[in-house]
Amino acid sequence: MDQDQFSRLLECQPESLDVVASGKTRFRLARALFEAGQCGQALETLAKLPRPEAASAEARYWRARCYNRLARATYLRVFSAAPDSYRAHQLLAEIAEARGDDAKAVGEYQKAIEQRPSLPNLHYSLGHLLWKNFKVAEAREQFEAELALDPRHAGALEDLAGTYLYERRPERALEYLERAVELDPGNDVHRDLGIAYADLHHYRQADAELRIAARDDRDGSVHYKLARVYQALGQKGAAAREFEISNALNRESHRKSEERTARLAEAEAGAKPVEGESTATLAAAPRLPPDATLDDPAHLLDTAAAYLAESRGQDAKEVLRQAAAMPLSDEQSVRLGSLLIAAHDNDLALDLFRKLAERHPQDSAGWVRFDLAVALLSSGHYLEALAESHRLIETDPGSQKGSFAAVWSLAGVAAARLGRTKESVAALRRAAELAPAEEERWLDLSRELMEAGRYEEAVSAVREGLTHNSRSYALRLRLGAAYLKSGRYAEAESAFRELVRSGDPLPTSAVGLAQVLLRTGRAEEAVQELTEVRTQIGPSFLLNYFQGLALQRAGREQESMRMFQEALRFDSQSVEARLALARVELHEGQIQPAIRDLNEVLRLKPGQREARALLSQAYRLAGDAQAARQYADKAQEGPPAPAEGDLLGDFFLPAWQHPPASHQP
User: Fold this and answer.
1) Per-residue pLDDT, 11
2) What integer pLDDT is reported at residue 115 of this predicted model?
3) For the chain, which terminal residue's Cβ has fewer other Cβ atoms within 10 angstroms, N or C?
4) How many angstroms separate the CA atoms of 317 and 406, rounded?
């Protein structure tokens, strides 16, 4: 405002303004009083503003300026009376800290402590400032000094615990947090307790503490940690929900922060600066604690992983596309690409890996080309994946070393997908020779040999693998499967029984044993074995399905029907179980249920050959000759019925490789 306006406003009598002045005029008077150095009267005038204006950002700003100047005047009186006293140094430290001059603040706190080391809260204030700047050892020394003076200082206990959490020493942090929470059970203490328990893998306790802290979560950081705890507990739905809440709170926090910064900048633009007065604290962004990483794309990647675990592929794709638009480190790019593949967003994943390869041309025989090959293989580009694998093998002098087993394995799986059995077996055998201690290499080799009908070679490969991995459950299971496929039922039975008797917590070995017993005409014995295992480890899809088959072979159709229905409660999308149920229903004269189940099989797997043949038979029995002819004509089309059981599984794709530390931005 100009000088005339300034003078006229100062000439106004406050009592007359109370009657006639608008909020705008009153506010202008407050500013004039402030600029005239009459901060007390300015505050009184601001207090009489109408409610909307009193709550505005600009009114708050000017109140802060008034308090700032009044405090400065008080400080000056202290300095004038005792310029080198411990209180003067303490006040200088607080002023410097408010201005963001941390180095000066540290120096002044140290001078105050030299004069009065026993003054309460001085060590804590210095320690807190040092901790804010991650000077952990120095901060810890000050917190310990404060606790020596006051063992019940909640702030020192909490911050001291924070230094140990920062160093991933949760057991030490707990010592102080358990004392702090008794003195000051605030949300921050519960948050840190939750982090400590999570780091110690005490997830139930972490869950309880973080749920308390989440009540006051303003930026999503607590819900983010809670989501990670639920992931560790296997609670996929809860994890996905917490990630969603975290993202929403984080977005809202950023929006409010941007609005607040804009309002402060607008208010400050109209301020008349006063020499020696600082407004740094008004516009300075608060420091984030050491564990705040919500701006990092890793937050979105964790969210997408939770969605994928919940089979929410479309939600995962949306989050991953947000992450793809952000600046990413090489490590994050690899993780993003792997998640995109898992979400079947193959084009974006391949584009990402190709750009990575362009960004690191000097690594053409390294991790980036390997990950591109894995991406090509995972997305069905088998020929390109094989070419990349061969390029790596041909150009890298280390391709005959153990560390290169994954590349040979990659080449072997790609060749297998292309139907090049001879080339696949040769590559997978080389991978197993280079890394004999990795059970996956022998599992892949034996799988391809069994697919090719070379069962005796598969048995030999598994035995050789067991000489290097004698305790491998998967190889022992594969040995039984190889014996079963080769018709060596006695050896297969022995291998599977050994696993069952050792207390196998999984149903797979019992299913293998049941298949041997069924193939050797011992259906009742298979029923008995499966019943015992179900009692020991509980029901599952596999156990219920194979017990249904065993009961059917034993002529106990009604019981088998109930068991197939139980299996479908575990997996309603299983074509094998529903087809087996329909067979029994048809055999037992339950025509309409059989028709419903066979139509469901064809919905799940259109063209399934056996389902069409059985459906033709069912319609004929139901008296619908036209429908019977329709399905009879098509019964020779489509894929054959699935095998009774598959103990092979798929290949073990090599894990994604990650860039060395030198490549991280």
Assistant:
1) 54
2) 92
3) C
4) 28
> Which of 531, 591, 539, 603 lies closest to 567, judged by CA?
539
This prediction has a pTM of: 0.64
Domain boundaries, the chain: 1-81, 489-572, 581-659
Distance of CA 478 to CAs 313, 409, 508, 515, 663, Å? 32, 18, 11, 14, 40
Mean pLDDT by 10 residues, the chain (665 residues): 50 48 75 84 86 81 85 73 80 82 90 92 92 90 94 93 92 94 89 94 95 91 93 89 89 82 67 48 35 64 87 89 90 92 92 88 71 92 93 75 84 95 96 94 95 95 95 94 94 96 92 95 96 93 95 96 95 94 95 95 91 93 91 60 52 76 48
Q: Hey, do 489-572 and 581-659 end up sharing a CATH topology, with the first three levels equal?
A: yes
Class of domain 581-659: mainly alpha
Contact between 588 and 565 (Cβ < 8 Å): no
Q: Is 489-572 a domain of CATH 1.10.1740.10? A: no
Do 452 and 423 contact (CB within 8 A), yes or no? no
- Hunting for tokens 């120096």 — which residue is that? 107
Long-range contacts of 120-124 (CB under 8 A, 24+ apart): 120/149, 120/150, 121/146, 121/153, 122/90, 122/146, 123/149, 123/156, 124/153, 124/155, 124/156, 124/159
Judge contact between 332 and 297, C-beta under 8 A.
Answer: yes
Q: How far apart are CA 38 and CA 438, in angstroms?
A: 80
- Residue 34's nearest CA partner among 260, 264, 267 is 267
Report, in angstroms and rounded to the nearest whole number, the Rg of the chain calculated over CA atoms. Answer: 36
